[in-house]
Amino acid sequence: QRAKEGELVRTINHIKGVERSRVHLAIPQKSAFLDEEKKPTASVILDLAPGFNPNEDQVRGIQRMVSASIQGMELNNVTIISNSGKPLSQNSDDPAAAFAAANMDYQRKFERKLEDKVKSILGTVMGEGKVTAQINADFDFSRVAESQTTYDGENTAIRSSERDIDKMEGVRPLPSGQPGVRTNIPNAENQTGQSPVASNSTNRNRETINYDVPRTQRNVEKPMAQLKRLSISVMVDTAAVADANAPGGSRQEAVSEARLAEFRSLVANSVGWDKDRDPPIEVRSISFFKEDLEAATLAAQAAERNKLFQNIAQWAAIGLIFTLFFLFVVRPFIKWVTEN
Asked: Quick one: 254 and 294 in the same domain?
């Protein structure tokens, strides 16, 4: 087991950004009963290089490497923490919980990135340590897929046409003659002359036309993380103004409103602030707490003097002990040896 831990440590130490690491494996004894068998677990402690913060993919890669090295170990049974005790791995069997944790991590990283950008921009004007920013981002992490179909009725084209024409013509005799017995006798001569006839003519036209209508279909999937709202609060320290009557020849004065308006414009352009979406940017000038450097220097000097006195007293006590030991132990012993 220790050999396996050593191999894993050497492998993890080759990862960029990892200076040192420790691996602890907990491999249970095999049981004759399957229902009592426990899964092996692993704990990894990473000593990260200054400024290095591993992302989720890198952490998952270490988890996969460790779990694949031990037979029967599951991915969620590998816990990874930093040397400061911060958990780096998200071990959860619930996909919803893992998804929520990933969303929170994405939101925090986004906020910290914008805060660092604001501090960097205003810090070049106000000075290092004289700007602090707090940004809260509200995201919509829902996934939306839309399907749109558009028909163009103006640019239609004839695909096929069918025409059916029916024409019917005919004649039939109409009843005629004088009323009476003679008219009803068969083969009797018609005294009225030629019998009248009725003509019938029918025309029917039917036409069927099939059109092709242009159709456009789009499948749109909106981004998973859509920024809904961005709240920005910035505080800047007061500025030093020359004043001969003030102690030290200067006094602290709040930044003017015109200067704060310039700061708001800089912040808005740097973080992508939208006036229709986000609330107004708050920029205030407040005096930051400043430690008294003179008092701190005196306290440090006093601490150094006390430490020096303690060291002198310690070495003096050691010297006194050796002197007494020589006078009352070593010297009498030497005298006793020489006399005998």
From this structure: yes
pLDDT score at 291: 55
Among 188, 116, 106, 167, residue whose Cα is nearest residue 140: 106
- Which tokens sit at 16? 């960029």
Rounded to 5 degrees, φ, ψ at 87 are -70, 130
**Which CATH number belongs to the domain containing residue 231 in this structure?**
3.30.300
Query: How far from chain centre, in Å, is Cα 61?
Result: 19
How far the first Cα of the chain sits from its last, in Å, is 64
Percentage of the chain beyond pLDDT 90 is 16
Tens of pLDDT, residues 171-202 = 766 666 556 555 566 655 555 555 666 677 77
The answer to whether 138 and 119 are in contact (CB under 8 A) is no
Owner of token pair 């279909």: 217
Of the three residues 91, 117, 148, the one that is the final residue of a domain is: 91
